[in-house]
Design a protein that fits this description.
It is a single chain. This protein is mainly alpha-helical. The protein has a domain at about 25-85. It has helices at about 5-25, 30-40, 50-55, 65-70, 75-80. The site of one zinc ion has 6 residues, from helix 5.
Length: about 100
């Protein structure tokens, strides 16, 4: 590997880490605030990518989380915002309110 290839790899890794950090849920942030922020900044890709990302960062992880969202009509992140949070608050989906 040449030096320039090596620095490309390092730069790529850095970009990935920064992307990880800016899309990570904030300390104490609830799903509602997080999903609003991510869908606003990065959009919805038709999956529950932000919901699962948020869920993965929680200490308390009800296993049925995704199924619960889907049962309430949340098959993607923007549907979660539009449909699921009409049922808000739901203490399993939203362990606490941060806003
Ligand atoms: Zn969507
Ligand atoms: Zn919140």
């Amino acid at each position: 590997m040449t030096d320039s290839q090596r620095s490309d790899v390092i730069a790529e890794q850095h970009v990935r880490e920064v992307a990880e950090q800016i899309t990570a849920p904030r300390e104490g942030e609830c799903l509602l605030c997080y999903a609003c922020r991510q869908v606003r900044d990065f959009g919805c890709d038709g999956t529950l990518r932000w919901g699962t990302r948020w869920h993965g960062a929680q200490h308390r992880r009800p296993r049925s989380f995704v199924k619960r969202l889907q049962r309430q009509g949340g098959y993607c992140d923007c549907q979660v915002l539009m449909d699921v949070f009409r049922h808000y608050p739901d203490d399993d989906v939203t362990p606490h309110v941060c806003h």
